[in-house]
Specification:
mainly alpha, 31 helices, 8 strands
Length: 821
């Protein structure tokens, strides 16, 4: 039985005021100077630590308490560092020395917090991680008792932040060097350089440029024929033609679709404690790739992902084959919502999935950390808690496909992709029977969960297991039809505000609507729909100052290595302001003017001289502009994980360029995954890396080594690490050995003579011929290593191949192969 609040307070006083086993009183700790917390650390505090402290500690240890117990205040950083009667509650960076951590671990019977019951293990882990990272905390001022709450209004000062201002048509700058600009982008860039007495680097040579462009637009290396054709083309529009060819390639969608999948934390599994597979998720992945290839207008792309099922319903009166396919595509698009992460086997924790949806919607589309307002008004941006729940209610009024969990291992609410007539005649009886059986299974389990051990519970468990088997047989007997893991309309409902973020402590009802800073539109009273259709219109309104800016910035970021806004997921006041604000607005307005065409935006950027500059060193410029914010040279970048793997497969000749389909998951009736035996697999394929199966509780091994995207959160910027594991992988992995051996075979077929063979290796891997020194050194190495291979037992017939493969592994792991200039 949980202790009463009075009892809890008494135990708090006793444990914190006097605890012999805890040792002498700890001296007060002052906040030592150290590095400022990063935006990611502060977000960790806001999303995970502050809600935990509010829920479990503030009742006794905050300005809201009648009298803070033991004088300990946990509602401000000074209060935590000052501590109570026993001294500081936290020693930043040292969890083992922090009384707060000792208390929540319940290791000492006289120091146990909260006294009403211990925290969940994951909550303890959150506090330990927070202290280990230095206890980052923006609450610099001691908290004061809360004043009576007034209705929130966006202040005039908040509206002045640059990203909330309307987009304005900027004047194109006048520059001194009129010969350099090829377009307006160049004028904005050059004006900034000239203002600081700088000049841009010269243009990149043609071999470098075609390699740069081919990786940028398709994620693959150019073929020898493509390089030679471009180098030989002296026409003034040679590069423009090459860009158009690359944009028309089906590999463009695979490359840039992956960019979007990074943002929406795409995975083929649910993320629950058993990480159930989602066999139908691939349809959403392929929808994204196809949308990029077809240059679907970005505003339409967004509307389909938020409300595609509602758009599809508009065309049900015209049941032609083409209209059916369009409806299915729009339904599949709502997989964006359905793939929101699941967190456990308990339906009671679905609020975490809705929070994940709101969080991703904010960061990926609007570039705002909206979820920081889940427990309280956003501490930095003009987003009150009411705005968070205005959006939350829209998604709460939506039905998400259910992937199955340990408690109930069958899928639910997947959407049949069949004509309405067939759906009603053939599938409806099965679907109705499934729904009835599901209801009985859930009711039985819910009753069983309320009972202690005994005959009744055993009887219910046996009945529950029998119904699960019946459900297995029903799944086996279902007609074979395509399904979408998607979203559909649920029961329209306004969310009630979660006091301090606690879904069990509800406040007033919040009408569904949009952020006040972006218009504050509300659904009409009695609206008989979720509001997703209206939300899709609100975010794609050309007057919305964020949607176009955020996407344009992302495209710029991937072409130049950094965005005009260096914090692409945060355009709020904690983010970085744009380095070239007028250029950002110019591009955003052109983006909308061009019909939200991403291909037109790519073409505009790549045809600028700013993008075509060489990658050069300049010590003076590097000292004056170390981050190259003024774009005086091209930023050298390392190949991303997908590019690296795909390039190795392409060069070796092993790449399967056909589109990927469904993964070979076990049939649903065989699923027995649990938190102790979760789903884990890795389906081998030589298709492009975008088609690899992606999990949430376990990252795909190759992507884990080479910094692939996080499948649990929006990845606007991938981290780039340099680790021993990467070098060891390239030297020792089966994949690296296999690709090197296949490349050796290819070279032997295409260039029997050794010097020509080595030169061809360089042309394939690096896009340039080998120098005389490189050729001599390479051949000398191969000649020298063959006797060593003989002593290692390599047969005569295999020795030459092994020697060449050994050399090629070095070539494929070199900086020049792994980096783009």
């Amino acid at each position: 039985m949980r202790a009463s609040r009075a009892t809890a307070r008494l135990v708090c006083v006793l444990t914190l005021a006097w605890c012999p086993s805890a040792g002498p009183l700890v001296a007060q700790v002052t906040d030592a100077a150290g590095p400022a917390p990063t935006a990611q650390q502060l977000e960790f505090f806001e999303k995970h630590v502050r809600p935990l402290l509010i829920t479990h500690c503030y009742a006794c240890h905050s300005a809201e308490a009648d009298a803070p117990e033991t004088e300990l205040r946990l509602d401000s950083r000074p209060g935590i560092l000052q501590g109570g009667a026993r001294g500081a509650a936290v020693v930043p960076g040292e969890p083992e020395k922090s009384l707060l951590i000792k208390a929540v671990r319940y290791a000492d019977p006289l120091l146990q917090m909260p006294p009403s019951g211990r925290l969940a293990p994951r909550e303890v882990d959150v506090l330990v991680e927070w202290v280990r990272m230095g206890a980052p905390d923006p609450r610099s001022e001691a908290a004061q008792p809360a004043a009576p709450k007034q209705p929130y209004t966006v202040s005039a000062e908040a509206r002045q932040w640059w990203s909330f201002q309307p987009m304005r048509e900027p004047a194109v700058p006048v520059v001194q060097n009129e010969r350099w600009p090829a377009c307006e982008i160049d004028r904005f860039v050059l004006a900034g350089l000239e203002a600081h007495g700088m000049t841009p680097a010269p243009p990149a040579e043609k071999r470098v440029l075609i390699r740069r462009a081919t990786f940028a637009l398709t994620g693959l290396p150019p073929t020898l024929e493509e390089i030679d054709a471009f180098v030989a083309d002296d026409a003034t529009d040679a590069f423009a033609k090459a860009v158009d060819r690359l944009l028309a390639s089906p590999h463009y969608g695979e490359r840039w679709g992956r960019r979007w999948l990074d943002l929406v934390r795409y995975a083929d599994t649910s993320g629950c404690n058993s990480d159930f597979p989602i066999p139908e998720a691939y349809r959403y992945r392929n929808y994204v790739i196809d949308s990029f290839n077809r240059d679907k207008p970005y505003d339409r792309f967004l509307r389909e992902q938020l409300a595609g099922d509602l758009l599809a319903a508009e065309g049900e009166d015209s049941p032609s084959e083409d209209s059916n396919q369009r409806r299915y595509e729009q339904i599949v698009a709502t997989g964006y919502l359905a793939i929101s992460r699941r967190f456990s086997s308990l339906a009671e924790e679905f609020h975490l999935t809705l929070d994940d949806t709101v969080d991703n919607f904010g960061k990926a589309i609007l570039g705002l950390t909206i979820s920081c307002a889940r427990c309280h008004a956003h501490k930095f941006d003009p987003i009150p808690q009411e705005d968070y729940y205005a959006l939350y209610g829209i998604f709460q009024s939506t039905t998400y496909s259910f992937p199955g969990t340990e408690i109930y291992r069958h899928t639910q609410d997947l959407v049949p992709l069949v004509p309405a007539e067939r759906r009603h005649k053939e599938l409806l009886p099965y679907l109705e029977r499934t729904a009835e059986l599901d209801a009985r299974i859930f009711a039985t389990y819910s009753h069983m969960a309320t009972l202690d051990t005994g005959d009744e519970k055993n009887e219910l468990r046996a009945r529950w297991q029998a119904m699960q088997k019946e459900r297995d047989e029903l799944v086996k007997s279902l007609p074979d039809f395509p399904k979408a893991y998607a979203a559909s309309e649920g029961t329209p409902i306004n969310a009630r505000l979660h006091l301090k973020g606690n879904p069990e402590s509800l406040g007033p009802e919040i009408p569904r609507g949009f952020l006040q800073i972006l218009g504050g539109q509300k659904l009409a009273a009695g609206q008989p729909a979720s509001g997703r259709r209206q939300l899709a219109e609100w975010i794609t309104d050309p007057q919305n100052p964020l949607t176009a800016r955020v996407m344009v910035n992302r495209v710029w970021q991937h072409h130049f290595g950094r965005g005009l806004v260096r914090t692409p997921d945060d355009f709020g006041t904690r983010g970085a302001p744009p380095t070239h604000p007028e250029l950002l607005d110019y591009l955003a307005l052109r983006f909308i003017e061009d019909g939200w065409s991403l291909k037109a935006l790519h073409r505009r950027i790549l045809l600028s001289r700013a993008w075509q500059t060489a990658c050069l060193e300049n010590a003076d410029y590097a000292r004056r502009d170390p981050d190259n914010e003024r774009l005086w040279t091209f930023n050298r970048r390392r190949l991303e994980a997908e590019e690296f793997r795909d390039a190795m497969l392409a060069i070796s000749g092993a790449l399967d360029r056909s589109p990927g389909g469904a993964h070979p998951f076990k049939p649903e009736w065989e699923w027995r995954y649990s938190q102790h035996q979760p789903f884990v697999d890795d389906f081998a394929t030589n298709r492009r890396t975008v088609y690899l199966m992606q999990q949430r509780i376990r990252q795909q091994p190759f992507l884990a080594v080479f910094d692939g995207a996080d499948t649990n959160a929006a990845t606007g910027v991938r981290q780039v690490s340099t680790t021993p594991q990467q070098a060891l992988f390239l030297l020792n992995s089966e994949f690296a050995h296999e690709q090197a051996a296949l490349l050796a075979d290819r070279l032997a077929r295409e260039a029997p003579q050794s010097r020509a063979r080595l030169d061809r290796a360089f042309r394939l891997a690096l896009g340039r011929p080998a120098t005389g020194v490189e050729t001599d050194e390479g051949l000398e190495y191969i000649e020298r290593i063959e006797p060593l291979l003989a002593s290692a037992g390599i047969a005569d017939r295999d020795r030459s191949r092994a020697a060449w493969a050994s050399y090629l592994r070095v070539l494929l792991s070199g900086n020049e192969f792994m980096f783009i200039e």
